[in-house]
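In this supplementary section we document a worked example of the pipeline. Step one takes a protein sequence of length 154 as its only input; no multiple sequence alignment statistics are reported here. Step two produces a three-dimensional model, which step three serialises into structure tokens for compact storage. The input and output of this example are shown verbatim.
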Amino acid sequence: MFRIAPPRAIAAALGGAILAGVMAGSASAVSWGTLTASYDGKSRASGYGDFYNSGATYAKNKVLTKDLSADGNTVYAATNFLFFGDTSTGGQGWVDNGYASTPEHNHTYYVTNYLSKGLDSNSEKARGDIRVCVQLGFPVSDSCSAHAYPTFSY
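The serialised model returned by step three reads:
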């Protein structure tokens, strides 16, 4: 003997299957980090995150940053959005298509922010040039981490 599931259970299962299909159709997130910015021999900022295709419309960077030193200086993350395509010199390569940075903060716990840029319709690849920085104040330049370069195709 078998039992027929109630309509709500069938609807929930069907909705889950549709959501799984939609999620499978989008690009996976490319994780980056942990990056650390140092100054004067001391680690000052930490960050990590995911760079991904958001709804086939945006290159999105989920960024988590943290102040490691609690010394009054603020921390932030910056992303240059690059798309593969025709360069100004006539060849093909990574073309810078915009910059975004998170708000500065001095929290000693990870703070989440999202940075995004519309996908370039003339390209099929997006790359983030990402770094984590500590704002040291004039006249000292900000100190930033090494770069991460997560990339996805779309």
